[in-house]
């Protein structure tokens, strides 16, 4: 210690002094090649803490969960220690991550390499505690249940374990002849479930379509090749925000159903009703194609939204078939009316011609009578034989006229019978069309009134 003007000077320390004391350099492989224990039977206890920053995406089609997490690992390096009093009170230094051994932890569900920037440094304390903090974008698989889509709640796991190190307190890790059992790495959760959930909610940056509910932590073990592997399982529970899907999908289908119900008030004998129903059915088909792009192809249960769409589509299809049947009955009625109209016009024309002939015969007879009466006063005695002959001819003409009228009455009776029979057939077609329309409308309204409350109740339970 040097003095200036008889007074002691303060000691100056740097982080490099600590590194030199520890002989911690990139070339020194002692600190990074093997597990940092002085006795190989000592397990390395790794405390792990994971908090959720953001939910970047949840893709149902590929069943992929993409969170952005903040992970902290804490373990003990038995080869590192120093006295802070000898180094001006320095209790912690930061060193590059490639200078020290790190636990070989990985995420079992990860399907894509993390491409986010990594933290190049880690903290080392004077007691040998090493702290590594990482921000990670995790692309992992998640078994999703879309039965209640879009009112569903998903639970996705992130399982963390060691790649080659095994062990759990009091259990056999490695079974080799002439070697004792060794616990290599033991995983402990730094925070419990309630604390991790609270910190995640405070740190949450964005959630997007999903609302974060809970982060639960549990441990599990499995045995493989006589080796016991320890895992920490972080379960993220999140609920979908359904407003967008309700507005863009469920409500339009409900509107189309209302339009299909309203189409029952369109007249059946007009072609607009059939075209309208076909248009509504095609619109539902387009929405079903959009739904096929959203939902995954593999699912344990049929999604309720698929049941919702299929039942409504089936009702509209039955409604279309009912309209086709009623239109057919109406067209059959119209064809019968046109056929009877032609027959009646033909009969009326024939009757008119016969009546004209009767009028001509009547005029001729009247004329003959007038001629006979005019000449009766002057030449009665001369024309008596001629008058008798004329009277006989007039009587025969009247008989023929009566027979003709009788025949016309018979034809008129036949015409009325045909008209009556046609009217009865037309009445049956119209009655059947009205009955079918009324019965199907009651069935349609009843089915919709029962189905919609049941499906929405199932969504909410």
Question: What does it look like?
Answer:
The model is unreliable at 1-7, 168-172, 174-181 and 366-384 (pLDDT under 50). The radius of gyration is 51 Å and the shape is rod-shaped. It folds into two domains: 22-241, Distorted Sandwich (Acetylcholine Binding Protein, Chain: A); 245-362 and 400-461, no CATH class. The longest helix has 81 residues, at 380-460. It contains six helices and 14 strands. The strands form three sheets. Strands 3, 4, 5, 7, 8, 9, 10 and 12 form an eight-stranded mixed β-sheet that branches. A four-stranded antiparallel β-sheet has the order 6-11-14-13. The chain has a two-stranded antiparallel sheet with strand order 1-2. Helix 3 (243-262) packs parallel to helix 5, helix 4 (272-294) runs antiparallel to helix 5 and helix 5 runs antiparallel to helix 6 (380-460). Helices cover 47% and strands 23% of the residues. The chain is α+β, with helices and mostly antiparallel strands. Strand 8 (121-125) and strand 9 (129-137) form a beta hairpin. It has helices at residues 15-22, 193-203, 243-262, 272-294, 304-376, 380-460, and strands spanning 3-4, 7-8, 44-59, 64-76, 92-96, 105-107, 110-112, 121-125, 129-137, 139-141, 153-162, 185-189, 210-224, 227-240.
């Amino acid at each position: 210690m040097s003095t200036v003007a008889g007074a002691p000077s303060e000691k100056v320390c740097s982080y490099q002094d600590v590194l030199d004391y520890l002989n911690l350099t990139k070339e020194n492989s002692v600190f990074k090649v093997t597990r940092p224990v002085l006795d190989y039977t000592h397990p390395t206890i790794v405390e792990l803490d994971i908090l959720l920053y953001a939910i970047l995406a949840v893709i149902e089609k590929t069943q992929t969960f993409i969170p952005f997490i903040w992970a902290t690992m804490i373990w003990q390096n038995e080869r590192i220690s120093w006295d802070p009093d000898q180094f001006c009170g320095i209790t912690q230094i930061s060193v590059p991550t490639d200078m020290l051994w790190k636990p070989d932890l990985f995420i079992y569900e990860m399907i894509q390499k993390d491409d986010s920037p990594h933290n190049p440094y880690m903290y080392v304390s004077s007691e040998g505690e090493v702290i590594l903090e990482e921000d990670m974008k995790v692309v992992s698989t998640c078994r999703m249940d879309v039965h209640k889509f879009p009112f569903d709640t998903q639970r996705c796991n992130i399982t963390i374990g060691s790649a080659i190190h095994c062990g759990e307190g009091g259990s056999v890790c490695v079974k080799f002849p002439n070697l004792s059992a060794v616990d290599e790495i033991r995983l402990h959760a730094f925070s419990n479930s309630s604390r991790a959930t609270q910190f995640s909610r405070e740190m949450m940056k964005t959630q997007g379509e999903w609302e974060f509910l809970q982060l639960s932590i549990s441990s599990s073990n499995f045995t493989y090749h006589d080796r016991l592997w320890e895992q920490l399982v972080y379960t993220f529970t999140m609920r979908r925000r359904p407003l967008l899907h309700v507005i863009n999908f469920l409500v339009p289908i409900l509107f189309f159903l209302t339009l299909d119900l309203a189409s029952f008030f369109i007249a059946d004998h007009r072609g607009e009703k059939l075209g309208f129903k076909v248009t509504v059915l095609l619109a539902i088909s387009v929405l079903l194609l959009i739904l096929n792009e959203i939902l995954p192809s593999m699912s344990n249960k049929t999604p309720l939204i698929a049941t919702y769409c299929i039942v409504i589509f089936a009702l509209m299809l039955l409604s279309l078939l009912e309209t086709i049947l009623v239109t057919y009955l109406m067209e059959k009625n119209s064809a019968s009316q046109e056929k009877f109209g032609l027959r009646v016009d033909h009969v009326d024309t024939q009757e008119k011609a016969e009546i004209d002939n009767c009028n001509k015969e009547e005029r001729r007879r009247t004329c003959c009578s007038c001629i006979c009466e005019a000449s009766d006063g002057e030449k009665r005695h001369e024309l008596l034989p001629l008058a008798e002959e004329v009277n006989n001819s007039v009587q025969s003409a009247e008989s023929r006229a009566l027979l003709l009228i009788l025949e016309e009455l018979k034809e008129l009776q036949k015409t009325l019978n045909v008209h009556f029979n046609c009217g009865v057939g037309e009445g049956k077609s119209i009655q059947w069309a009205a009955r079918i329309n009324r019965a199907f409308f009651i069935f349609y309204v009843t089915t919709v009134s029962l189905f919609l409350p049941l499906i929405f109740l199932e969504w909410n339970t």
